[in-house]
Amino acid sequence: MTGPKGGRDRQGAAKPGQAARTLTVSLRKSHGKTTAQQRWLERQLNDPYVAAARAQGLRSRAAFKLMELDDRFKLLRRQARVIDLGAAPGGWAQVCVQRGASRVVGVDLLPIEPIAGATLIQGDFTDDAMPARLAALMGGPADLVLSDMAPNTTGHSATDHIRIMGLAELALAFALESLAPGGCFVAKVFQGGSEKQMLAPMKQRFATVKHAKPPASRKESSELYVVAQGFRSA
């Protein structure tokens, strides 16, 4: 997947097309919405990824981010066992199923509508018993652990960065307990200096660690994804 340039991805699904960008929707100012809410709604209505996700029955535009990361890094091997942390609303789990994963287990504090081919549970992945519970559901260790989690933003960049890095570090700790040798880990982070504290232990346990910003990630967003491959057990 290469982003909003038309064409089809490797599964034959239509990509977000440039034509969608030519239809710009402007809303009249609503007295029932704040300026920020008005901007968000206009952005959603004019986003080709939102339109493509709706047309293809995907739970969220974020599904395209995983498609693009998979196209670049070949994360989703056939018959892979995948754990999706913070899985709601289920867009990444859908992609994992569509791309041939044999077992997909998603966990979130919020309930998730069922997805054929995936096991979705409501719970806290930081619970001590959760790694063993998810391994039992998958029938063994994971080949890929995913985390697209992000906290609700405060508007204060330093605070938001610390909060998302806290989630990413918790996801990494979970992955180190759950991955099979050679496995992969993907997590959302924000641009900023403190992610270097997370990279050092990752480089000790994975063969390669890289940052990536998929085309589906909005240009104005500070989000990045850290992609670690070739897990080495301790």
Give a verbal description of the structure.
With 234 residues, the protein is an alpha/beta fold. The chain folds into 2 domains: 1-57, no CATH class; 63-231, Vaccinia Virus protein VP39 (Rossmann fold, 3-Layer(aba) Sandwich), CATH 3.40.50. Helix content is 34%, strand content 21%. The chain is built from 7 helices and 7 strands. Strands 3-2-1-4-5-7-6 form a 7-stranded mixed beta sheet, with helices on both faces. Helix 3 (63-73) crosses helix 4. The longest helix is centred in the last third of the chain and has 22 residues, at 157-178. The two termini are 34 Å apart.
Q: How would a textbook summarize the main sheet?
A: 7 strands, mixed
Uncertain residue segments: 1-9, 17-27
Kindly report the spatial arrangement of strands forming the biggest sheet. Answer: 3-2-1-4-5-7-6
- Beginning-to-end CA distance, first to last residue: 34 Å
* Helix-residue proportion: 25-40%
Mean pLDDT: 81
Number of strands: 7
CATH topology of the largest domain: Rossmann fold
User: What would you call the structural class?
Assistant: alpha/beta
Query: Helical region count?
Result: 7
Taken in chain order, the helices and strands follow as HHHEHEEHEHEHEE
What is the CATH homology-level superfamily of the largest domain?
Answer: Vaccinia Virus protein VP39
Radius of gyration: 18 Å
